[in-house]
Write a structure and sequence with these properties.
By secondary structure, this protein is of the alpha/beta class. It has helices spanning 3-10, 14-22, 30-43, 49-56, 72-87, 101-113, 129-144, 166-179, 195-210, 227-239, 252-264, 298-313; strands at 61-66, 91-96, 118-121, 148-152, 160-164, 185-189, 220-222, 246-249, 274-276, 293-295, 322-324, 327-329. A six-stranded parallel β-sheet has the order 2-1-3-4-5-11, sandwiched between helices.
Length: 345
């Protein structure tokens, strides 16, 4: 079936049928629109997406760049993006950057060449200076042409931003540990060069300073937001014999890795060592013991990012970041200090 067949069946011109089925803004009466849609359904006609894009100057596609697609954090966000994008008739194209600046920059260029209508950066902004020197002017130039972008997390040159208050959430978790009596707290940092990692680390240290506690560099362990990274960081911490009573991991993946490291050494959580995380991924409720963490509304962040793209494409403005609520979730992995952890050897 062709567009001509639809036009003939509906009793309209080919141009009118094209406007209705292509989503053109050209005014068409409700009666005529109904006739065209009924004819298309009757004949089983589906408009070619490329042809429709030529009419509307929109491809109805969104680009989504994630740091690590196997991370449950990103999986939940992408599900939210796809669900809301689908409701608005958009297709989401997901690209995995592994948080590598050159890979992410290349994806931005490729998605531009595919003429996506908008782009969502689903992870925290990268801090690499060379990357920023290329990305920032590219986004500015694209936005002049009507392209829109949304950042989930800390981003500079985007049309809109969706986030939680990472600093406040980190402070709340740190205060929770301090209220239990912990004073020797190891912190597993997120990936180097990631804005979110920096914000959470700085908030943790600022909270300790407010309580007059020393900032012990050997208790800041570099991680990478993965299970293995948390396992390796905690293993290193325990082998060096640091007298810690709690481990605060900057995300749940690393916290679960920390739990595995303690179990391998036959340590009890929380009797020997408290372990807490950040994000509240689904697995946090089911590990043993269930993980104390910060609930991040990951799915809703994805929904709101997709909604923001659609609103921006319709001409709305969003001058302020959309900050969603977080929540401290206390489960069985945190408790007052036990005998502590001089676990070297």
């Amino acid at each position: 079936m062709s567009l001509n067949d639809v036009a003939r069946t509906a009793g309209v011109s080919v141009a009118t049928a094209s406007r209705v089925l292509g989503g053109s803004d050209h005014p068409v009466s409700p009666t005529t629109r109904t006739r065209v849609l009924q004819a298309a359904q009757q004949l089983g006609y589906y408009p070619n997406s490329v042809a429709r894009a030529l009419v509307t100057r929109q491809t109805k596609t969104l680009g989504v760049i994630v740091g690590d697609i196997v991370d449950p954090y990103f999986s939940a966000i992408v599900r939210g993006i796809e669900d809301r994008a689908r409701e608005h008739g958009y297709l989401a194209i997901v690209c995995n950057s592994d948080r590598v600046p050159d890979i992410e920059l290349n994806y931005v260029r490729v998605l531009r060449d595919y003429h996506v209508d908008g782009l969502i950066f689903a992870g925290g902004g990268l801090l690499d200076d060379g990357y920023r020197s290329h990305l920032d002017p590219l986004l500015v130039d694209l936005q002049r042409g009507g392209f829109v972008s949304v950042g989930i997390g800390q981003h500079r040159v985007v049309s809109a931003r969706v986030d939680i208050d990472n600093a406040r959430a980190t402070e709340e978790m740190t205060e929770h540990l301090l209220s239990l009596g912990h004073r020797k707290i190891a912190y597993l940092i997120g990936p180097a060069g990631l804005a979110t990692s920096l914000v959470r680390r700085d908030a943790f240290q600022a909270c300790l300073r407010r309580h007059g506690l020393p900032l012990e560099e050997d208790l800041l362990i570099q991680g990478d937001f993965t299970l293995d990274g948390g396992f390796q960081a905690t293993t290193h911490l325990l082998e060096q014999g640091s007298p810690v009573t709690a481990v605060f991991a900057a995300n749940d993946q690393m916290a679960i890795g920390a739990l595995l490291a303690t179990q391998k050494r036959n340590l009890r959580v929380p009797a020997d060592l408290t372990v807490v995380g950040f994000d509240d991924i689904a697995a946090a409720r089911y590990v043993h013991p269930p993980l104390t963490t910060i609930h991040v509304p990951m799915y809703e962040m994805g929904v709101q990012a997709a909604e923001a793209i659609v609103r921006l494409l319709r001409g709305d403005t969003m001058d302020r970041p959309m900050v969603l609520d977080h929540e401290l979730i206390v489960r069985a992995s945190s408790a007052p200090p036990g005998r502590g952890a001089s676990f070297g050897g």
